[in-house]
Each structure stands twice: as C-alpha cells, then as structure tokens.
Amino acid sequence: MRARAPGAATAVHASAAVLAATGLGWTGWHGVAEPVVALAFGTLVAVGELARWGALPGEREPAPLGAAGALAYALLAENAGEATTHGVPQVVAVVTAGALAGAVPHVARGRGPALDHVARRVVTVTFAAVCFQPLHGPAGSAEGLAAGPGHALAMLLVLALTALCDAVLAAVLVRARTGYPFGPLLREELRSLPGIGSAVCATGAVMALGTAVAGLWALPVFCLPLLLTQLSFRRFAAVRTTYRQTIASLARATEIAGYTPHGHARRVAALSGAVGRELGLSGPDLTVLEYAALMHDIGQLSLVDPVPDGATALLPAQEQRRIALLGGAVVRQTGVPRAVAVVVERQADPYREQPLPARIVRTVNAYDDLTGDGGGSALAALERLRLGTAHDHQPEVVESLARVLSRGGLGPAQPG
C-alpha cells in the first residue's frame, strides 16, 4: 500500500515558517531599506491576495497578481536607475507581510488561504531572491550581471528554476494530502506552467525591469495585463464549471428515470478519478475519465425495462456491450470530446482491447454495483473483481482501486 507522506508537508510548512520569522526578525532589527519601494511592492502583494475574492475551486494559482508582485520584488535590482539594497531577508519579510495583510479579509469571512498556498509563496520567493539578489547586492560576486544581456539571462535562468521549484513544492504538498504518485502530479504541475504560470513569471520579470527604468510608476502599468488575464481565466473556469455541471445533470437522467440508484454516477466518477490519479493519469485524461464515468450508464435510457438496481455489471456480456454502444451514441450528441464517447462505447469490451479510462470505469462501476450503495461487502466485491482479472478487469486497476479504498476512498478533492 502506498502511504501518504505528511512529513513532507510538515517540512515545507516548517521551512516557510522559519524563513518568514527570520525575514521579519532581520528586517525589524536592521530597519527597512528603501521603505517606499518596500511599501509599494508589499501593497501590490496584498492587493493580489485580495483579488482572490470569488476564486474558483481548481485554480492552479489563486492569486497570480500577488505571485507576480512577490516575484518582481525578488528580482528587483534597480529603481529608476538607482541600485536597490533591500536584500533577501527584506524580500521575505515584505512578501510575508503583504500576503498576511491581503489574507485578513478572507480570514474574517472564514475563507482564509490554505496553509499550503502561503508556504509555497514564501519558499518560492525565498528561492528566487536567494538565487538573484546576491548578484546585485553590494557584496555581489558577479557585478557583470548587473546590467546588459547578463542581467536578462540571469533573470530568465532564475525564473525557470523558480518555476521548477514551485512545481516540485506543489506536487509534494498534493502527494502529502492524497498519497497519489509523485511523478504524475509533478507532470501535471509542469504542464500547467505554459498557462498562468508563464504569465506570472513574465509579468514579474517585466515589472522588475520596468521599475528599474521608470520607477514605481511601472507597477500599475505592467500589472494590468495580468489582472485582465486573471479575469479572462476566471470566466473560462466558470464556463468549464458550468459545462461540468451540465454533464453531471445529464448523467442524473438515469437516476431520475429510475434506471440507476441515486448517486451511482457521482460515486463512480469520483472513485474513477481517484483510481486514475493512482495509475498516473493527469490533466485532459482525467477530464475524459470524469465525463465518461458520469455518463457511462446513459445507454440504459434506451431500454424498455430498467435493469434491476441498474447493475449492468451483472448482465451477460452481449447485453452489456449493447447498452455501452447505445450510450456511446447518446454521448456523441452531447458535444463532449470524442474520447469520452469511445470510453463509454468500449467499457464492456475485454480489458485488453480497452483504453485505460474504459478499464477504470468498468472496474469502478462493477465495484459500485456489487457493493450496492454500501449494502454489499467491499472485501467481497474486490475479491470478485480479482476473480475476473482474466478477461473483464485489468489486475493493476483492481489493485489500484483497493489501494484507494484502503486510504479511505477518495481523499481531498484536487484542482484542475
């Protein structure tokens, strides 16, 4: 059994707390260098955190403006042509103070930022500042990088390393909560970098470079494109959520008509998603799996008489295949990706001829049919599935289902 790794999350949280306390303590003891600049960037981070109002579940970066502002301060070398001297501890202190100030209204409404989010912000910004600030401080050993092409190259390298650091942290924290394999989680985080991640990095770099030339007036000018991008992303996320809700409502048609037990499609979809992550699926593959699991029984609407308790897994193979083909024909009319219809059509085929999502849906559907809304024995159901691994169920899928169930089922919901 693959266990969770809460120690990794504790280590990240503890590291963030130590870094934040050190930065605040050092800055409080030595005083704030360039207080106007520090105030401007701290305010930008706070405003970015405030912009989390109405953030939708599943957003990979819930406060992109705050992340860009924090990154820009870590990469800041000059202000209107004059070298800055704030250093790494002050970067950590300003970002921590800004993040906490922006979180106050959320906490007051009982929707404070997750500890993982704050820890990632502190550790990632510290990493960027440690890599970049020594190159431009008074004791910097690479003064040639302070201007010209070297400055841009150093900034690009730090941005790439920081993005990788943040992706690794995110994967570690998700694995600690869920126990899902680290490799697929990391791949999913890396795949998201060309999206909002690249916009955050680019905006942070442009704000730092713009401030170096034009001063603090560059901040409101260069943060506007990211703010508009954030609004557009939320509209897209809202449309995607509405689309998912529409699919879920369509899937409930079999329940309303009395063909399947209440909650069957939702249980199969949730458990299939957990098994899919256990087997390494991520991104679009998980979306296809979710939609197919929700609509896997839609073909039953074509039957004259309902299957007892909707348990298609107990029907003869030929009848199962007929219902699956009918379901695929219906799904093709809904506008979902073609891959979803393929999974629905092939869920009754021998598992060696199926794509992985169809194998998962078939096994999880059979498990839910056998346990019958909690009325059957999970151990007996798993044993029956294992007996069918010669033809009906892939052994790896059955064992992954067993591991998910041994951890308590579904675990925390995941983004994206």
Summed up:
With 416 residues, the chain is mostly helical. The chain has helices spanning 6-30, 35-50, 64-74, 87-108, 115-132, 149-178, 182-214, 218-251, 253-256, 264-278, 284-294, 317-331, 338-345, 356-371, 378-387, 395-406; strands spanning 78-79, 82-83.
Structural summary, described in words:
The chain contains 16 helices and 2 strands. The protein has a two-stranded antiparallel ribbon with strand order 1-2. Helix 10 packs across helix 16 (395-406). By secondary structure, the protein is mainly α. A hairpin with a 2-residue loop joins strand 1 (78-79) and strand 2 (82-83). The model is unreliable at 138-146 and 411-416 (pLDDT under 50).
Topology record:
Blueprint: H1 6-30, H2 35-50, H3 64-74, E1 78-79, E2 82-83, H4 87-108, H5 115-132, H6 149-178, H7 182-214, H8 218-251, H9 253-256, H10 264-278, H11 284-294, H12 317-331, H13 338-345, H14 356-371, H15 378-387, H16 395-406
Give the tags.
416 residues; two-stranded antiparallel ribbon; mainly alpha; single chain; disordered C terminus; 67% helix
Radius of gyration: 26 Å
Poorly predicted regions: 138-146, 411-416
On the 0-100 scale, what is the average pLDDT?
82
Please bin the fraction of helical residues.
55-70%
Order of helices and strands: HHHEEHHHHHHHHHHHHH
Class computed from helices, strands and strand pairing: mainly alpha
Calculate the terminal CA-CA distance, rounded to whole Å: 26 Å
Count of beta strands: 2
Assembly category = single chain
Task: Estimate the global geometry from the Cα principal axes.
Answer: elongated
Number of helical runs? 16
- Give the percentage of residues in beta strands: under 5%
